[in-house]
Amino acid sequence: METDPRQLDTRVKVVTPENIAFQYHVAGPFRRLPAYLIDLAIRVGICLAALFGLSIVFSLAGLGNVGQGLWCVLFFLLAWFYGGVFETFWNGQTPGKRMMRIRVLSVEGQAINASQAVLRNILRAVDSLPGFYLLGLISASMNDRFQRLGDLACGTMVVSEEPHWLRGVAKVNEPEVLRLTARIPAWFQPNRSLARALAVYVGRRANFTPSRRIQIARYLGVPLRERLGLPQRTHLDYLLCALYNRAFVTDEVPESGAPDAAGTVTAQRVEGDPPLPAAVGSVTDQRGDS
Amino acid sequence: MKVSDLLEARREKWQALEQLCARLESRGRRRLDAPMVTRFASLYRSACADLALADAYQLPQETIRYLHQLVGRAHNQLYRSRLFKISTWAHQLLVEVPQRLFQDKALRLAFFIFWGVFLLSGMLSYARPDFAQRVVGKKMLTIVEARYAQPANRDNPAFCGGRMGFYIANNAGIGLRCFAMGLLFGVGGLLTTLHNAAILGGIFGHMATTAQSENFFRFVTAHGPYELTAVVMAAGAGMRLGFSLLDTQGQTRIASLRRAASEAMPTMGAFLVLFVLAALIEAYISPSSLPYAVKAGVSIFSVATLVFYFVLLGYPRDDGAVGRAMSPRGGRPPDASVDKPRPEKETAQKSSMQEGRRAIG
Asked: Which domain holds residue A268?
């Protein structure tokens, strides 16, 4: 895994054994603090509950000291090994981390092993010096993966597992747009960078007022309007949406042959097989013919 | 094919993978039967392939982010954390740790600093009464004096069990703290060691001047060797961490620290075992009314096991392979016989491709 030195945000790239690179967001102090506080609360809660429980049980049995001893051991284990044991058996997570959707991974992006989990939690004793995790914060602010000293020593990092919900392609169903889509010449096919720009625009246009949309759409819309030979009064916002529709959503409205053919290609593909880039290519060719 | 069609075609698979991930996260892999595991793996591979081709497919940014997250989530379920292996632990504790510690300069330094300061502080407090008061503090001295006012006569096992818990928690906590402090370029560990040695030496020296000296020394005889050795080991292991930042042996500082940290882990296990043994003796033998000869015998026995561990097991061997074959299973010292019991079944599982590749199921 390499971190791009030019990269200013908190993404870390991980290459899997399948030779796929995917990204993680490193979790900063403000994600980790609540997790820590939750874990602290759990530990204090268990300690208090055990204090009551053990003292009642053992004083009834007349063995008050054994209860005290057990409680001391419990306290010791919770103070030093709570995080380590949870991160070992819960795959890099403690209850607090699970609630905050963060996870400890090795800097290579692999799951951590038991000794990393235990040691990084024992070295908390240093990170929390001289108070309020000051050393840990200083260390985290001095590297690009927010690693505290314990993380540096064990080669671990904390990543956030933000859930992203699968949404379909944004659809623009305004009737003017659909009408305009049909009028775009069939020979025009947005290239990749244009398609990406269109997708970004359509994804954000809901946040803008109509006049602002036109102001933004002008930069791309005016040259495209010239090129496609569309009339001067073509609405620029709708034009971009129509091009977006062409690129991402549908082919010509009247024709239905091409998408069907593509659909069967997908359906026949065996699950687990790598998708065939040729399918995309061939469909593009068909489209070029039509 | 348009992106929207592609997404519709893929949606089902991605969501199936998501559901399997959720099941794995909540219930663990043992609840997933074999066909499901195969399906999970194939869905994961196809999601990986989709992510790889996301750019060629011109997927929207939102979907790419979703795929990154989905692949990451499945990746974390597929390649899980490795657990402790008791078999390797025994080998490390009995063969590698003593070999390493025998030549560990940080441990020698910790040893000499601890005992040097301990003896110095002890002699000074013995010679000059106000020295111990300044170093240890009057309050602490009064507490210690009061504790040893009576000769040892605690034979109640329940009481001893309670004390044992306290000793484990307190002493091992001190040891772990001392170990962790070593990370600060060794300085933290040095200071903690100096502090511990000065305080302990002060108490020993002071107690020798008081009327309770006999009670005190009879109390500390039995568990002293294990406990003080464990303190020194903790300090030495911590300093090894810290010095690895200074003397990197040609590696980057972080890489050097990581290597030292992975080496320090088994040592940590060893000194924790010593602390537990010391607590056991301190709770059950030291305060008991057993004759002093028995306590002295325990002390001699523990010194003998320590010598066996550090010198006989630690003495450099010519051939690592021979040493491994001859690893003393039968005659292992009691201080290394306590392994951390870990409830796990998977240890026997052979890792599939490499150590790190631990496929589910």
From this structure: 175-279
pLDDT at B351: 33
- Is B5 in the A-facing interface, judged by CB distances under 8 Å? yes
Please check the confidence at residue B289 and state whether its pLDDT lies above 90: no
User: A262: which residues sit within 8 A by CB, 6+ positions away?
Assistant: A279, A283, B1, B2, B5
B264/A123 Cβ within 8 A:
no
**Is pLDDT above 60 for A100?**
yes
Contact state of A166 with B68 under an 8 Å Cβ cutoff? no
Chain B segment 250-289 residues within 8 A of A by beta carbon are 254, 257-258, 260-262, 264-265, 268
- Interface check for B45 against chain A (CB to CB < 8 A): the answer is yes
Tens of pLDDT along B66-110? 888 888 888 888 887 666 677 777 888 888 888 888 888 888 999
Q: What domain count does chain A have? A: 2
Contact check, Cβ <8 Å, A119/B82: no
Contact B162 A66 (CB under 8 A): yes
Q: Is A48 within the bounds of a domain? A: yes
Residues A138 and A17 in one domain: yes
Same domain, A104 and A130: yes
pLDDT > 90 in chain B, percent: 19
Calculate the alpha carbon distances from B12 to A255, B16, B47, B77 in Å.
26, 6, 11, 20
Kindly state whether B57 is in contact with chain A, defined as any CB-CB distance less than 8 angstroms.
yes
Of A125, A160, A195, the one marking the end of a domain is A160
Residue A243 has pLDDT above 50, yes or no: yes
Nearest residue to A283 (alpha-carbon basis) of A244, A245, A250? A250
Contacts of B358 by beta carbon, 8 Å cutoff, 6+ apart = A111, B79, B80, B82, B349, B351, B352
> Where is the domain boundary, A104, A134, A160?
A160
Q: How far apart are CA B310 and CA B313, in angstroms?
A: 6
Q: How confident is the model at residue B31 (pLDDT cuts 50, 70, 90)?
A: low
Most confident of A168-177, B2-11, B72-81, B114-123: B114-123
Q: What is chain B's mean pLDDT, rounded?
A: 80
A151 and A192: one domain?
Answer: no
